[in-house]
Amino acid sequence: MWLSYIKVAFRSLIKQRLYAFINIAGLAIGVTTCVLILMYVRYENSYDEFHPKAEQIYRLGLQGKMGDNEFTMGLSSAIAGPTLKEDFPEVIDYVRIRNTGFPVLRYQDKVFSEEHWWQADSSIFDVFKLTMVLGDPRTALREPFSVVITEKMAQKYFGDEDPLGKVLNSDNRVDFKVTGVVQEMPPNSHWHFDFLGAMSTYGDSRSTIWVNNNFYTYLLLAEGADYRELRAKFPDLVLKYVGPQIERFLGVSFNEFEERGDAYNLLLDPMLDIHLYSHYDREIEVGGDGRTVTIFAYIAIFILLLACINYMNLSTARSMSRAREIGIRKTLGSKRSQIIVQFLAESIFVTFISFSLAIAIVQLIIPWFSNLIETPLSMSLADIPLIYLWVIPVGLLAGSYPAFLLSSFNPLKVLKGNRSVGKGGSWLRNSLVVFQFAVSITLLIGTVIVTNQLDYMQTKDLGLNPNDLLIIKKTDDIGRTIQGFKTSLRDDPGVLYASNSTAIPGNVDGLNSSVFGMLTDEGEQMRLLNSFWVDHDYANAYEIKMKEGRFFSRDWGTDTIAVILNEAAVKLFGIKDPVGKDLITFFGQGRTPFRVIGIVEDYQYQAPQVEIRPMCMFLLGDGTVRNRPNWGKFVAVRVDPDQLSGTLAHIEEIWKEHANEQALEYDHFDDYYAELFKSEKQSAAIISLFAMLAIFIATIGLLGLASYTAEKRTKEIGIRKVLGASIPSILVLLSLDTMKLMLVAVLIAVPVANYAMQRWLENFAYRIDVGIMIYAGSAGLALLIALMTVAWQSYTAAIANPIKSIRYE
Amino acid sequence: MIKTEALSKVFRTEDVETTALNQIDLNIEQGEFVSIMGPSGCGKSTLMNVLGLLDNPSSGKYHFLDSEVSGYNERERADFRKANIGFVFQSFNLIEELSVFENVELPLIYQGVPASERKERVMKMLEKMGVGHRHSHFPQQLSGGQQQRVAVSRALITDPKIVLADEPTGNLDSHHGDEVMNLLKDLNQQGTTIVMVTHSPAYAAYGNRTVNLFDGKIADETLNGNFHV
Which of A118, A161, A425, A437 gets the highest tally of CB atoms within 10 A of its CB? Predict the structure, then answer.
């Protein structure tokens, strides 16, 4: 019996090759897409799971408010970790890590500027999973000036030599002894490093100040401990330790501080949530977006559903040609249940072929897809049986409707050739196609909006000139001779300006976030501002415009105690005529007033996605002023584009003179800035891909419905033609049906897309207005595709000779 | 009114060539009621299709009124059909999704007749055929005889020069069959030219002439007693 089913299934596939091809290909494409998306979703959800104690690890954070300024970050003070372990028994251990800029490391003739040098407590081996290749985890990070390096770094600096005991020089200042070699963190970790310097090396790790928050602190909680209970104890802890310090620094009691509406709260977040759900200021690495991942998971399911619907539609559409077989089987004594089983078996058979094809396609395109979404995905052998597990449910889902419909045929009517057998059910078939197109149109609208938003952000006026601007990185290593370097750069006529600063637009690393005071009409107001350090040429190099006053100038010796604000800062303090007023700073120990000499127009000095926050700029020191840096990590060079190649050669030469062996690293600012849209570009690429696939699958579905309808209406069309209907009028008649379905699909898709995309757009401080044209355009495109799909079927039906369809029944 | 000369129709498939009509010479005068008879496969329906301009002959001449129509293309044939020919089928061929009224109205829509005039003409026709009270029903709610009356109404609504009826009683019991035949006879007496295919000698006798087809050729013609013109 089963053999007969398979045989019939196989023969029916062979007989209707085109239909079988469309059916199998459609399902295979749906499954491929679904598998790819689910692999991505699984990968995104797998972050940090490789730590055996991952579920017991929580990261401390800080949520605070000062005036109108709120901040939430995953950082905490040096003292927080030790205090928590001391005070709460459920805190078994803690580890603090902190990034230490870009040191220039030297070993013999090897000189490299490194970006991933971190400080870490020796407890890191107890809390995290680090696989030690060489050295002893118990002692490796105990002593000051010891460093643990990754295998890659060991190879880079020491080649085949034994790295243990070797000395790495940092910035020509201090030497670190290599005490261990570990494996790299896997890619699905929210944090990566190349070097771990012993925390004990750094004095500020012993700071007891609660209001300096520069450490990422991870707590290891006892098994079974509820982190929410621990978190509930934090307010008392803050009152006990932070309260007195606030009183000392701000001059108000903690109660008064809170009564003003200000806040200082410790946060505690599961480490497993960091990658997808924690989007605080200054995250270690750019995380994934949990919402996007969830949306993708839904899309995956929808696409699979679309593909199943296709199967249903195409199968029922072809039911006419199977009706006779069913009639004969029934007449010969087959029970309805046997017919149902037969068609389900057939559907599972087709699903099996489609899945096999899909697995092959996935294997083939996974490198390309990984590359597209810049995520290292791979399919292991163990995944294959997991995927095949879905053959039966998918096959049953896809085959259920055709099986029940076809098996319900009345054998008498069928054998008499009554064509109105698959009557009824058209409501369901139409709904399925409407559903397919609603999903497709939603994705289409999504694609258009994502693309437009991306385009808008990339072409939006940043308030600075991103073109013809080079950024030389890691200039802090030549710090002492930075003035000479800049002067030499300007020897080349192609260099218009060269400016040294601690931060560049789009990069948050160099930004400080601190409290500043200002005398306003309502007394002295404390506000949190971003701040960084620049030289005299900063405004010229970036072509930033002044709103009021002037920029730092070499003509004014007093500019060492001057400050520049942006418009947002002026607004935050709510002051009129800010130029000439004093900004109170708390550098070092005491209060120092800085004179406001100018206001810059707001420009995008942070990441392009975020709102321009209040900010102030100070002048870099020349070595004579205390409590300020004398050089920054970046030199921006405004170049004459016509002389670029000569200028680059010149820069290379000057760099060599000043930086010895260290390689020159530079970016074109516009290229570097475009990189900041990576995640959005990735989303756009994925969603466009999905939209195309969804439309493709839906189109196949519509093709099925169209051929079904055309077949079902052949007689009607014949009669109409005999009565004098023209071909165009038949085409209109058939297209009208499709139009009606599309209209319903649009009515469903537009509100859904609107809701989803408005929420997505909320991620951006500056967003496009979603005009009616986007919706109308997307709907129009879908309609056009739909009409083109049915055009062939309709045309074939319309030109058919009516005598064939109406002669004898 | 209709004159064919050496009219032939040959169907070709890959390896078989079937001659469905072989050198047919047929004259039909205005006001005649011609019955066509013959065994299955003799070419009756093919002849009706060619006469009805649903299909082109392979060779020969076909004069309809004073026009040579055998070379017409699809569009010309459609226009010609619309203006001159009414069809009645064995299986009624009513559109199930349309009401009785809408079915009869359809040819007028394709002729571009304005809505108010359509309504008047359709209702008048339905009354005349005795199905006026059924105008808002759907075909499947009517008896076979009633369905055929609707089909005849639809064939006549455009005042065609000729009505082609292809076994109009084939799906009806004898009671309803007689009813339809009387209807056709009445129409003919009012001046409508009718060509009818039938298997029944009794119904064939309603016509004033019977043409017997065999193997695609006219075997013989007999005049019946009831010649009215």
Answer: A437
